[in-house]
Design goal:
Number of domains: 1
Strand content: 35-45%
Largest sheet: 16 strands, antiparallel, barrel
CATH topology: Porin
Order of helices and strands: HHEEEEEEEEEEEEEEEEEEEE
CATH superfamily: Porin
Radius of gyration: 39 Å
Helix content: 10-25%
CATH architecture: Beta Barrel
Distance between the termini: 114 Å
Strand order of the largest sheet: 1-5-6-7-8-9-10-11-12-13-14-16-17-18-19-20
Structural class: alpha+beta
CATH class: Mainly Beta
Number of strands: 20
């Protein structure tokens, strides 16, 4: 079949256009490409990417380690909270009442090394003269400063929340047995009953005198507050007092306390089982006391506090021999920056042996106490203590503290003797210590402490002793 002329001419024209359009493309020559440079640049990019991947991998490993540590800590805290909640549920069921009861305490063991002679090697209060038969140093271990506490949370009465706590330890002495040193006798320490309101509280029980509220920090000394018999008024005394708090905006809070205490004098019990009245109790009057304080809460757990107290106690030593005992106290707690805190107490008074003002009784006798011609001389005491606490880190704290009690008779001539008491007599007793307390967990305590004692007895030269203690405890 013959193609029409018009179609042949159109095909020729189209082919010519295609040739004309493609000729410039075939006429151009492509630019040369530097393949080696491109490969080198690619290698450098790969190396940079590899370094970044290695760094990212290391950071990932560090984050995983931190997350594992945090997860372990959170799991431990969760287990503790669950255990506490379980304990609370159990004690609710097991309590003799419908109110919540909590068991707490501190299991602690001490290892001590002592140089010189002291009144007690596991917790010395005063130094003694050493005779030639005694060794120059000793090593002991003890767990009898372990504490057990029971708390009960009672009902609310007329807007007052009621609660009580009883605490025991094993510092009452030793049974007369072959294993007596490791079978210490349980002792009642403190009893606290409280009815707490928003601004007013009523408290009763057996505690440290409410007008002397502070004590130094020591894990080595838990059976007695630190610096007992060396400037710290601490004796756990039956007492009842009322506390009223009044806040002043922008200034802080004022606290007024007033109450009465058992007028103890430091005398030893007349009998092992039957209680006989002491010189203070024979007057028929309780000992009144009061305290006025101001404190202000600062950032975190820091606060500044200043207070002063007064105490009065009449004493009847028989045969018409009466003594007017009294005490004035001052206490303060002042932060020195974010990590340091200075605290302490001062006191001055007469016949203060019942408060634990020093290693002595309240009075001295000029002769046998049973004779009417024997005179009674009250001891005038002055002393106090100070402590500098340093928060090295959230889990490590350091303390350095020192205290002094100095007493002398206010009148009388000739030799004087002390009444019958188990407390060694020392008109001047001083003590100082430094310690480290490490608390890696909220319930775990480790401590190292060195204490020095300087004692001047009633007769003889001054003596000194040293005491190094390592403590390990777990709170529950």
């Amino acid at each position: 079949m013959q193609v029409p002329f018009r179609l042949r001419r159109a095909a020729v024209l189209c082919l010519g256009c295609v040739v004309l359009l493609t000729m410039p493309a075939f006429a151009q020559t492509p630019a040369p490409v530097d393949v080696a440079a491109q490969i080198a640049a690619l290698q450098r990019a790969i190396e940079t990417l590899q370094r970044e991947l290695a760094t990212s991998h290391q950071h990932t490993l560090e984050l995983e380690t931190q997350l594992r540590a945090l997860r372990a800590e959170l799991d431990e805290e969760r287990d503790l909270i669950q255990a506490e909640a379980s304990t609370l549920d159990q004690t609710k069921v097991e309590s003799g009442s419908k109110y919540r009861v909590r068991l707490s305490g501190l299991a602690i063991t001490h290892v001590s090394m002592t140089t010189g002679a002291v009144d007690g090697t596991d917790l010395p209060l005063i130094a003694r003269a050493r005779d030639e038969a005694q060794p120059g140093h000793t090593v002991t271990a003890s767990a009898r400063q372990t504490q057990v506490g029971i708390s009960v949370f009672g009902p609310e009465v007329r807007g007052l929340r009621t609660a009580a706590e009883v605490r025991f330890d094993f510092f009452a002495g030793f049974p007369s047995a072959a294993d007596g040193l490791s079978a210490a006798i349980m002792r009642l320490r403190t009893v606290s009953l409280a009815a707490e309101g928003t601004t007013t509280s009523i408290r009763a029980g057996q505690e440290a005198p409410f007008f002397s509220p502070l004590s130094p920090t020591s894990v080595a000394s838990t059976a007695y507050p630190a610096l007992a018999a060396a400037g710290n008024l601490w004796t756990w005394t039956p007492q009842v007092y009322v506390e009223h708090r009044r806040g002043v905006p922008g200034t802080g809070q004022f606290v007024l306390q007033g109450g009465v205490l058992d007028p103890l004098t430091g005398e030893s019990p007349a009998s092992e089982y039957a209680r006989q009245p002491t010189a203070g109790e024979r007057t028929g009057w309780l000992a009144p006391a009061g305290r006025l304080a101001w404190h202000r809460q600062l950032a975190g757990d820091r606060r500044v506090s200043v207070g002063g107290g007064a105490f009065s106690s009449n004493q009847d030593w028989g045969l018409g021999r009466r003594i007017n005992g009294w005490a004035l106290t001052a206490d303060a707690e002042v932060p020195l920056g974010a990590r340091l805190t200075l605290s302490g107490e001062l006191y001055r008074g007469t016949a203060m042996g019942g408060l634990g003002g020093g290693a002595h009784a309240s009075v001295l006798f000029s002769g046998p106490a049973a004779l009417a011609t024997t005179r009674v001389h009250a001891l005038t005491s002055r002393g106090g203590w100070a402590q500098l606490a340093w928060r090295v880190s959230p889990v490590l704290r350091a303390h350095i503290a020192g205290g002094l009690d100095r007493s002398h008779p206010d009148a009388g001539l000739g030799p004087l003797t002390a009444p019958d008491t188990d407390v060694p007599q020392a008109p001047r007793n001083a003590s100082a210590f430094t310690n480290l307390v490490w608390q890696p967990r909220s319930n775990l305590l480790l401590s190292a402490e060195y204490r020095r004692l300087w004692t001047t007895p009633l007769a003889g030269p001054a003596v000194t002793a040293g005491h190094l203690t390592f403590g390990f405890g777990i709170a529950f």
